[in-house]
Specification:
The protein is of the alpha/beta class. The chain has four domains: 141 residues, Chitobiase/beta-hexosaminidase domain 2-like (Chitobiase, domain 2); 133 residues, Alpha-Beta Barrel (TIM Barrel); 137 residues, no CATH class; 152 residues, Jelly Rolls (Sandwich). The strands form seven sheets. Strands 9-17-16-15-14-13-10 form a seven-stranded parallel beta sheet. The chain has a six-stranded mixed beta sheet with strand order 3-2-4-6-5-8. A five-stranded antiparallel beta sheet has the order 20-22-27-24-25, with no helix packed on it. Helix 15 crosses helix 16, helix 16 runs antiparallel to helix 17 and helix 18 crosses helix 19. It is globular, with a radius of gyration of 32 Å. The chain starts with a helix and ends with a strand.
Length: 751
């Protein structure tokens, strides 16, 4: 009888526990819009503790309809509670470090702890994992409504960020909730000074005129390209400037002391001696940064191992409070950094720097830098690259995307990269697939096919994926007209799958912008050919296609709706892109008797810019002001082009266009010689003018040269040979080590 009473009592207790928690293995936080729980914060809560409590309260209400009260902790209160921050139950923050978090259950209670921003990171992780919500973009999070929120009564989740610095540079990163949800940071806000900083610390416009000795000595001349890092006044100016900035911004985490985005490091005797001692110009840089860092031992400093300073110094280590940013800017992106041949120098630098410091950050690029909207099929490398960098001991990664403006797959790239920075072992394909389904609904499967097809086409083409590329360069590879038709068909299917949903259709139209941009850009390459923007009317006159002009107008409008503010870093705004096209529309098609004529070259053109090969010079299409397409470029050698007109004709003049773009080391020819022949064996010169000098001027322009055949108006000519001589060396005002002068010609017209 006593045994029976005991068993009955035990049953009653277990039944009571089940009534409170649902069953012995779960905790019911809310049911049918009600909850027995409250959110408990410390008696003197910090701002982040109050913020975390409010966030959790808001999402529980949005998911379940139950509004939990937020209260300050009181002794002796044994009611069901969710503890946030440094309460009597949440005292683990001290050992977690900045960004670390713990979520655990304690009998019937829930406890959140975190170091620094780790507390809010942990709350958002709980909201995603246990409440089923997702933050895909800067738009409001996706909510998964639940009549009953239940979790296990035995949970212990501890998380520490695998990188101390994590940034994904896309528009969504400016959304505070998106940052906190995905545990991201922004160094330009964390840092008192960010990026290239020499000119911020010692501005040339302030000091150069009176003190040229503060700046680089290059080839015996002082120029304001970089600082003279062995000048004591420069050191004092930098220290004083930092003191003033630190006083204004005491909460800043990092301060950059980094070279300008230029070459021209100092080669004065003192700097040269330091560089020789430590094996290169990074010696002067690290020595200088270490000196400054010693003045501020409680501050953290960053510097850039970039450009001339990419190699690690010998016998010199960065100070413990100095973090070195290494750039992988020169690597192609079609293969992971761990195996890509062009990344060998980066891997070598990474290994060398890791031997002298454990404080390594990486400046990585995940977008076509020169065309933010261009298709850039590198999604398959994102996970492999982050995993590789983590295995190399890297502590922080800056993933440079399109920045403040919308770029190709901006939402997808930002989300997937953020998840991989949080967990480098996550499956990138699964992340992509789930995002496409969540963000695009039933259209997601077609967009997945589009991504896969484009990726397969890139691999099959054996083309390299260059962050300084141009979609026009891929007219024979993964962006050929045939492939473009297939891609557009998949987008048509995607739009049809969600035809009744204006929100999803808007997202699909935004994702389609790269294909529209590619078609517009390609039209410049094709010009008077199929898929070009110039057509012949019924009278045989060339003119701009009305359909094309309307398509351009729609594209510009759609860009504005999508948040496209510029098409590249410091590039054109959509309205400026329209204006650029309007200028192109206004340029007449120049008639030529050499249209389609074969061209032979004595010296090869620059392989980086193949355009249409030799035919570029006789395809009838301008290159306008962009050297990356429709121009044949030559460096180190003259352009010697021989055109076969196919039959003898009267030639009155020869017109040609050369680009003048000193910012890209492209200059006017110093001399142009035009020779003609009737048989291809015997040539005579009709003109050999000296072109205007390449004076100091960075203005971008196209120079037209017209060579008249005054002496031989009646002569029958079949062959025209044009020789354009390059500068023998870079002018001092545009000198950069390792660069050579280039000439670029887009067309040779024969009339």
């Amino acid at each position: 009888m006593k045994a029976s009473l005991w068993l009955y009592g035990l049953f009653f207790v277990l039944w009571g526990l089940t009534a409170c928690t649902g069953n012995a293995q779960e905790i019911v936080l809310a049911k049918n819009g009600r909850s027995d729980y409250k959110i408990v914060i410390p008696k003197n809560p910090s701002a982040i503790e109050q913020h975390a409590a409010a966030v959790l309260q808001g999402y529980i209400q949005r998911v379940s309809g139950a509004e939990l009260q937020v209260v300050k902790e009181e002794k002796g209160d044994n009611s069901r509670s969710i503890y946030i921050g440094h309460t009597t139950k949440g005292n683990e923050a001290g050992r977690l470090g900045d960004g670390g978090s713990i979520f655990r259950t304690d009998d019937k209670d829930l406890v959140f702890s975190g170091g620094g921003k780790g507390l809010i990171y942990g709350v958002y992780a709980f909201i995603e994992e246990y409440l089923g919500c997702k933050k895909l973009n800067s738009e409001p999070a996706l909510i998964a409504p639940q009549k009953k929120i239940k979790i296990s009564s035995h949970i212990y989740d501890e998380h520490k960020p695998q990188f101390v610095y994590r940034e994904v540079y896309y528009p969504a990163s400016h959304d505070t909730e998106y940052q906190e949800w995905h545990q991201l940071q922004q160094l330009d806000y964390m840092g008192g000074i960010w990026g290239h900083s020499f000119n911020k610390l010692v501005p040339a416009q302030t000091y150069f005129a009176g003190h040229p000795e503060y700046y680089s000595q290059v080839n015996g001349k002082r120029v304001p390209s970089q600082l003279c890092l062995n000048n004591e006044d420069v050191f004092n100016i930098v220290v004083n400037e930092l003191k003033k900035r630190m006083a204004k911004d005491p909460d800043a985490s990092y301060w950059s002391i980094s070279p300008n985005d230029d070459g021209g490091y100092c080669q004065c005797d003192k700097c040269k001696a330091t560089d020789n001692l430590y094996g290169g110009p990074s010696g002067s840089l690290i020595k200088f940064v270490n000196r400054v860092a010693a003045v501020f031992p409680n501050q953290k400093f960053t510097t850039l191992a970039y450009g001339y300073a990419h190699k690690a110094p010998r016998n010199l280590k960065p100070a413990d409070n100095v973090y070195v940013f290494i750039s992988d800017i020169d690597a192609y992106r079609d293969k992971p950094l761990s195996v890509e041949g062009s990344a060998l120098a980066f891997r070598t630098d990474l290994k060398a720097w890791s031997s002298v410091t454990a404080n390594l950050f990486i400046w990585d690029y995940i977008v076509e830098f020169t065309n933010y909207l261009a298709p850039f099929p590198n999604l398959q490398t994102l996970g492999a690259n982050i995993h590789f960098l983590k295995s190399c001991g890297v502590k922080g990664i800056f993933e440079q995307g399109s920045g403040d403006t919308y770029g190709e797959w901006a939402e997808l790239r930002s989300y997937v990269t953020a998840k991989l920075l949080e967990d480098d072992k996550a499956d990138p394909r699964q992340l992509i697939s789930s995002f496409l389904q969540d963000y695009y609904g039933d259209a997601g499967r077609y967009l997945q096919q589009y991504i896969d097809l484009q990726q397969d086409n890139l691999i099959a083409s054996n083309h390299k994926l260059d962050i300084y590329g141009n979609p026009i360069n891929e007219w024979k590879s993964y962006l050929s007209p045939e492939f473009m038709d297939q891609y557009n068909a998949l987008f048509d299917n995607a739009a049809a799958a969600v035809a009744g949903d204006s929100t999803l259709l808007g997202r699909i139209n935004r994702a389609r912008l790269p294909l529209e941009y590619t078609a517009l850009q390609m039209a410049r390459l094709y010009g008077i050919e199929k898929n070009g923007f110039i057509i012949k009317d019924k009278n045989g006159n060339w003119g701009v296609s009305r359909k094309f002009a309307d398509r351009l107008t729609r594209f510009v409008s759609d860009c504005k709706k999508a948040g496209v503010t510029e098409l590249a870093e410091a590039g054109l705004r959509p309205d400026q892109y329209q204006e650029e096209w309007n200028r192109i529309f206004a340029e007449p098609v120049i008639p030529t008797k050499a249209l389609g004529a074969p061209v032979s070259l004595q010296y090869p053109f620059a392989p980086e810019y193949p355009a249409k090969g030799n035919l570029t010079l006789t395809d009838g299409n301008c290159g306008y002001t962009d050297f990356s397409y429709n121009y044949l470029c030559f460096y180190g050698v003259p352009m010697v082009a021989n055109i076969d007109l196919g039959k003898t004709i009267a030639v009155n003049k020869v017109i040609m266009h050369f680009l003048d773009d000193p910012r890209h080391w492209i200059f006017k020819p110093v001399k142009i010689t035009v020779e003609v022949s009737s048989d291809g064996a015997h040539y005579h010169t009709i003109s050999s003018p000296i072109t205007p000098a390449n004076n100091e001027d960075d203005t971008l322009s196209v120079k037209e040269y017209t060579i008249l055949n005054k002496a031989h108006l009646a002569e029958q000519i079949r062959y025209v040979r044009v020789t354009a001589n390059n500068l023998p060396k870079l002018p001092s005002w545009r000198y950069r080590e390792g660069k050579r002068p280039m000439i670029a010609c887009d067309e040779i017209y024969v009339q």
